[in-house]
Amino acid sequence: MECHKANSIPENKHTAVLLSSIGAKPYNILCSLTAPDLPSSKTYANLCQILQSHYCPKPLEIVEQFKFHKRSQKTGENIADFIAAIKRLSEHCNFGTVLQTTLRDRFVCRLRDEAIQKRLLQERDLTFEGATNLALAMEMANRDAHDLQSSADKSIHKIGIKTPGTGQTGTPTPRNQSSRPSFPPCLSCGKTDHKRSNCYFKDATCNKCHKKGHIQTVCKSGQNQNKFLPNGIGNVKGIQGTLILKENSQPKFCKARPVPYALKKKVEQELDNLEKQGIISSVRHSDWATPIVPVLKANGDVRLCGDYKTTVNPNLEAEKYTLPGMEDMLAQLEQGVTFSKTRHYTNQFHYYHVTILHFGNCREKYKYETSLATLKIN
Question: What is the pTM of this model?
Fold first, then answer.
């Protein structure tokens, strides 16, 4: 109807415009619904009612009421979104004259914030509009108060008070310090005037790590990320990788595989980056050549992998190393404090020589495992 008004279409042409614009499939369905009459013999209002009954039938009242009464405020959901959700669910519940009362009861009883819920229950003549306005105001006040306290200067200049006759200097105690109970710093917001179980931000989502249970000011994500990791590429001292070819093995040179245009620039950048770090070096000639496989990471960068199984791996004398059992490994890790996780390249741009151990080479994998077994845990 709004489309007709916007395009100044006369009322006597509404039916013709509808039938000419709905498409072949909906028109055939409409012909079946109006049979034995033709759709053109119906009024515009009748056609709209027929189509709505077919595509959007009226939902069952008891099912809609069940969904309404089951709805609670979700974790991380603000009050405004919760209000909109229960209003939308009440659309087909047919509450009639008790709609506002039912909305009020559902809103107050299903709030997650216990402090706001207690405040609403103190109101004697509470309406749905009054409950929503008061809850929204309290939620905004709590958020603004926390932002103000977080941005305030937390440094305190202490003034020593000399006690007469003792010559000792002490620290003054605030007047209201004894009236406020002190708790360990809350893991959700960092304050010490409440327990975490009563914290307003215990179900909040952090803007830094996007995890629930705390806010950005107390987020510990990334604090110890580089504490035990060296900058750049590390090397194992005293160990040099060697490749032993099988007898009568022939060099295998694989041509470069085509790189997708969408990844071409990223592959070039990654090759330059690896060469700057000394992981690879450019060469003009080689009897052996292994194609690279670009893998797109979750952050949009590219990881370059060498497909050694098609070239050098079948021609290598594999070095055997028996991995220790789980019980032996756990016994050696008993006094461990810091642990880590490890993850076990020709292209159309240049040929490169690998200067640092690469996973994927069958012999170097065993060399790496053997080296790990000789490391001592400090």
Answer: 0.34
